[in-house]
């Protein structure tokens, strides 16, 4: 048998491999980074991502856990009514572990918690890992697996795929997508593949769920074709031999078992099914229950999909206090909007909770998505009923976690859980907001307060999905522009610092299919808009000198590059062409561009060009593992900064007291660990300002300091929102 588990060890910070230093001149001798204590918090938006699982502990009142597809796992702090992040300690090299495939608790040992981590199962992603805790996630031990998991792949709302054996707390089961079923007999320290009667296919589903029904363990199988002769539900009563469950439902509506829950009072196992793993692509589904005492199956589907009302079934939860009381969710129901169905008679009759729901999203206004009122939800595959309060019900969506205490009034139960993938950051030098962020899925947010979700919700007129560009005119900070994916326009401008917006009067035709980064010159009189298709194909950059009323192609601008405006001279723009390793500049307001410095690192898509605020021609170029470079002559020449060997993103903030140059903030490496650093002496020396408990996986998209508060820094994460830190 294949051995999947290796050794159990404590979680360590990541390291990056060294790269060539290049041949350009060095600015200074290498400097080591000492640490400075910082207090780190999350700028509040409220959820914004797919909550794929929620789990109430069956033995402890007020204890619950939640998992997300890219943003880690959380524990519910009942006293303070907020979620506590549990795996922010995972660093740069462990970015693939921020997605949580599954979680499990031990009913007999309330402090034990297990997480199966791994975001992608593709060849370019690392293998998965299992984290084990004896103190509810305060500390962990880790086992690296020899297989890949897929917390952000199709089927990520199924499960749970991890289970503590009901007969032996030392035994755990883990269902994988491509490698069958794994078993541990030493509480997750080592794992071995076990004999399982089903054969994985290329669908990437494999074992979709594991659930205990009494002392019997059931496993759902997602690689079935839905025919009667191909089982998709298996069981073991001895922990060794697995067999198909007889009499299981057949047909496309019962093709993929999504979730299951056991009613210990009636000894019935409820299983939700769909014709695809979800969260997208489902058009049919059903709900069935299995009476485990005699093996009888009964269909209890609340409403059968059909016609224009297509959907699957997703979440299921049983009421621990009331026999026969069950809640299931629909999923991918776009025509009639997803709902929860509740039964109190074992599925003979059902009530749609959406029909009487009163939604209060005043704490997270973005959930209206630019409309008058929010939807009840979508991508509903996580459902939980509090075992100590039958009227306390929660369900996850693609953006939040709703909760109720009376089955009628619902509000996000999401405090502390932040899953935004952040792409751009601005910290204005004046105005109400200290932070404006460009984000995946939720567009642009204007943060008047860092401790409350933006009152305006997502920037509207138009509403974007994912933001691709965000820029401010350095000499006229009231003027801000943004770009992104939207159904009603892909570019907009603001004359009040980002509080309100108006779409460009026109936009280039390519903007609909390939919106990219955008720049405004120092006085806001000229815009440059770059276009890159989602598949990476670049298109010619366009220029507007009339606030987006008309656009013209800039033939000499390097395709796919990001335009950067000089903060002082309105006639000057810059662009770095990674294809050739050449810096280009314009001195005629973006009409034409000419090459300047060449011979820089080429072919690296992860780079950033930045200009120091208030200084014309003072350029800084981050070239990933090739390090950091500086030019003080507008890009005619560059010198390598030797105080760091890796630089991923760079930003500026208010100068230190007594200093004349802005503080620099960098995500990069001065020694072995990729971390967040600050320099108050023009990169001669750096100090690390995050710690091993605050790393957040991949943080290479953006970093910026606050131009009004020295020491405050904002860090963009890929799944943990905007993290901001201040010296303590």
Largest sheet: 5 strands, antiparallel
Number of domains: 2
- Mean of residue pLDDT values: 94
Q: Return Rg in Å.
A: 27 Å
Per CATH, what is the topology of the largest domain? Methylamine Dehydrogenase, Chain H
Gross CATH architecture of the largest domain: 7 Propeller
Q: Tell me the number of strands.
A: 58
Q: Taking strands numbered 1, 2, ... along the chain, how are they ordered across the largest sheet?
A: 1-11-10-9-8
> CATH superfamily assignment of the largest domain?
YVTN repeat-like/Quinoprotein amine dehydrogenase
Beta-strand content bin = 35-45%
The outline comes out as elongated
Class of the largest domain in CATH?
Answer: Mainly Beta
Q: What is the CA-CA span between the terminal residues?
A: 53 Å
Based on the model shown, name its key terms.
728 residues; mainly beta; Methylamine Dehydrogenase, Chain H; 2 domains; 5-stranded antiparallel sheet; elongated; disordered N terminus
């Amino acid at each position: 048998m294949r051995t999947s588990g290796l050794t159990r060890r404590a979680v360590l910070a990541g390291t990056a491999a060294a790269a060539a230093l290049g041949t350009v001149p060095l600015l200074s001798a290498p400097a080591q980074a000492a640490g400075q204590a910082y207090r780190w918090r999350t700028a509040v938006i409220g959820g914004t991502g797919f909550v794929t699982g929620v789990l109430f502990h069956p033995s402890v009142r007020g204890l619950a856990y939640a998992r997300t597809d890219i943003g880690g796992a959380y524990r519910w702090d009942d006293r303070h009514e907020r979620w506590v992040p549990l795996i922010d300690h995972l660093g740069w090299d462990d970015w693939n572990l921020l997605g949580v495939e599954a979680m499990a608790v031990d009913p007999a040992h309330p402090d034990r918690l297990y997480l199966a981590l791994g975001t992608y199962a593709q060849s370019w992603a690392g293998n998965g890992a299992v984290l084990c805790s004896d103190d509810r996630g305060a500390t962990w031990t880790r086992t690296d697996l020899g297989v890949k998991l897929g917390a952000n792949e199709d089927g990520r709302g199924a499960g749970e795929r991890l289970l503590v054996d009901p007969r032996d707390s030392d035994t755990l089961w883990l269902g994988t997508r491509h490698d069958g079923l794994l078993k541990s007999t030493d509480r997750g320290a080592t794992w071995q593949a076990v004999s399982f009667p089903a054969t994985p296919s290329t669908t990437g589903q494999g074992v979709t769920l594991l659930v205990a029904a009494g002392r019997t363990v059931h496993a759902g199988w997602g690689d079935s074709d839905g025919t009667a002769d191909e089982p998709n539900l298996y069981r073991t009563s001895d922990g060794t031999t697995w067999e198909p469950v007889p009499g299981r439902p057949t047909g496309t509506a019962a093709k993929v078992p999504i979730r299951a829950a056991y009613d210990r009072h009636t000894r019935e196992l409820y299983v939700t099914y769909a014709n695809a793993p979800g969260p997208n692509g489902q058009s049919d589904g059903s709900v069935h229950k299995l009476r485990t005492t005699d093996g009888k199956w009964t269909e209890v589907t609340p409403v059968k999909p059909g016609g224009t009302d297509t959907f699957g079934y997703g979440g299921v939860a049983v009421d621990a206090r009331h026999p026969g009381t069950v809640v299931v969710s629909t999923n991918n129901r776009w025509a009639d909007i997803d709902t929860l169905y509740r039964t109190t008679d074992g599925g003979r009759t059902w009530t749609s909770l959406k029909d009487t729901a009163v939604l209060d999203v005043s704490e997270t206004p973005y959930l209206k998505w630019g409309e008058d009122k929010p939807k009840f939800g979508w991508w509903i595959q996580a459902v939980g009923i509090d075992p100590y309060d039958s009227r306390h019900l929660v369900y996850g969506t693609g953006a939040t976690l709703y909760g109720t205490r009376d089955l009628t009034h619902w509000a996000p139960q999401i405090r502390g859980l932040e899953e935004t993938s952040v792409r751009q950051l601005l910290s204005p030098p004046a105005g109400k907001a200290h932070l404006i962020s460009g984000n995946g899925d939720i567009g642009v947010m204007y943060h008047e307060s860092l401790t409350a979700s933006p009152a305006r919700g997502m920037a509207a007129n138009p509403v974007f999905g994912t933001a691709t560009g965000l820029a401010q005119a350095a000499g006229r900070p009231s003027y801000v522009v943004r770009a992104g994916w939207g159904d009603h326009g892909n570019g907009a401008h603001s004359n009040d610092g980002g509080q309100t917006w108006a779409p460009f009067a026109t936009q280039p035709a390519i903007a609909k299919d390939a919106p990219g980064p955008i720049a405004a010159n120092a006085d806001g009189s000229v815009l440059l808009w770059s276009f890159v298709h989602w598949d990476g194909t670049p298109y010619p950059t366009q220029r507007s000198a009339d606030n987006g009323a008309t656009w013209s192609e800039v033939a000499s601008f390097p395709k796919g590059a990001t335009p950067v405006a000089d903060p002082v001279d309105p006639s000057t723009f810059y662009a770095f062409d990674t294809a050739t390793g050449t810096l280009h500049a314009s001195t005629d307001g973006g009409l034409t561009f000419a090459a300047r410095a060449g011979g820089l690192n080429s072919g690296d898509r992860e780079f950033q060009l930045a200009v120091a605020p208030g200084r014309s021609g003072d350029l800084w170029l981050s070239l990933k593992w090739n390090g950091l470079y500086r030019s003080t002559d507008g890009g005619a020449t560059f010198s390598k900064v030797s105080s760091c060997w890796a630089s991923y993103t760079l930003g500026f903030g208010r100068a230190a007291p007594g200093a004349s140059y802005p503080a620099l903030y960098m995500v990069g490496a001065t020694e072995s660990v990729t971390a967040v650093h600050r320099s108050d002496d023009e990169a001669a020396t750096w100090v690390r300002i995050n710690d091993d408990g605050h790393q957040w996986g991949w943080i290479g998209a953006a970093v910026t300091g606050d131009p009004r508060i020295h020491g405050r820094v904002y860090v963009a994460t890929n799944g943990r929102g905007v993290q901001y830190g201040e010296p303590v």
